[in-house]
Design brief:
The chain is of the alpha/beta class and 217 residues long. 15% of the residues lie in helices and 19% in strands. It has 2 domains: 150 residues, Hexapeptide repeat proteins (UDP N-Acetylglucosamine Acyltransferase, domain 1, 3 Solenoid), CATH 2.160.10; 43 residues, no CATH class. It has a 7-stranded mixed sheet with strand order 1-3-6-9-12-14-15, with no helix packed on it. A 4-stranded parallel sheet has the order 2-5-8-11, with no helix packed on it. It has a 4-stranded parallel sheet with strand order 4-7-10-13, with no helix packed on it. Helix 1 runs parallel beside helix 4. The longest helix is centred in the C-terminal third of the chain and has 10 residues. The protein starts with 23 loop residues before the first strand and ends with a helix. The mean pLDDT is 94.
């Protein structure tokens, strides 16, 4: 079923997607760091300067090579921070002090590899609340919600809502059956014409209604 000609999706390449609203940006056209990968339509809102988003990705050093990966259609609120592996210290040794970074005769005092917990991977359609902090090495599943001020140090399942420090699951957004249905539908991977056609249903409907609509396409 083709999209009617009067249906138009927002421009995914627009830095400021809402006219007259300078506090919100689409991240894909903004970010230049090759270690940050962001999908289309994911946005960041800031009360200060949304164009400074990359400053909130802390300790992302090229000599480590880790990545921040954020999917499509994610909503990221003011103050959200992503702490990468460059901030890690050894903890199973006598001292956690990073002797080697100061050089001189301390230069060889640490192992060749910096402590590395892995990439920080955020799925599609994730909402990250005000002042939340996400740590290196975790995976946040599709459709998850990270509450304001949460500190996320472990994986978050798809469609879980987490809060607190450390963040814990407070509830699931949908039943197991509906979560499985949504993950199978993977609407965020649809062509943008199809998403546009079903935008209202995606925004306000139920998983069953979206599945029915998809079956009729």
């Amino acid at each position: 079923m083709p999209t009617p000609p009067d249906l138009t999706a927002p421009d995914a390449t627009a830095l400021f997607p809402i006219e007259g609203q300078p506090s919100m940006v689409f991240l894909k056209p903004l970010v230049t760091n090759p270690q940050i990968e962001i999908g289309e339509y994911s946005y960041y809102h800031s009360f200060d300067d949304p164009k400074a988003f990359e400053e909130n990705v802390r300790y992302l050093f090229d000599f480590i090579g880790d990545r921040l990966v954020i999917g499509r259609f994610c909503s990221i609120a003011h103050g959200a921070e992503f702490l990468m592996n460059g901030g890690n210290h050894l903890t199973d040794t006598v001292s956690s002090f990073p002797f080697a970074i100061f050089g001189a005769d301390w230069a060889g005092a640490m192992p060749d590899a910096w402590p590395h917990k892995g990439d920080l991977v955020i799925g599609h359609d994730v909402w990250i609340g005000y002042d939340a902090t996400l740590m290196a090495g975790i995976t946040v599943g599709h459709g998850a919600v990270i509450a304001s001020k949460a500190v996320v140090a472990s994986d978050v399942p798809p469609y879980a809502m987490v809060a607190g420090n450390p963040a814990r699951i407070i509830r699931m957004r949908h039943s197991e059956e509906d979560i499985a249905r949504l993950l199978e539908l993977a609407w965020w991977d649809w062509p943008i014409e199809r998403i546009t056609r079903h935008a209202r249903l995606i925004a306000t409907g139920t998983p069953a209604q979206l599945a029915d609509a998809a079956a009729r396409d």
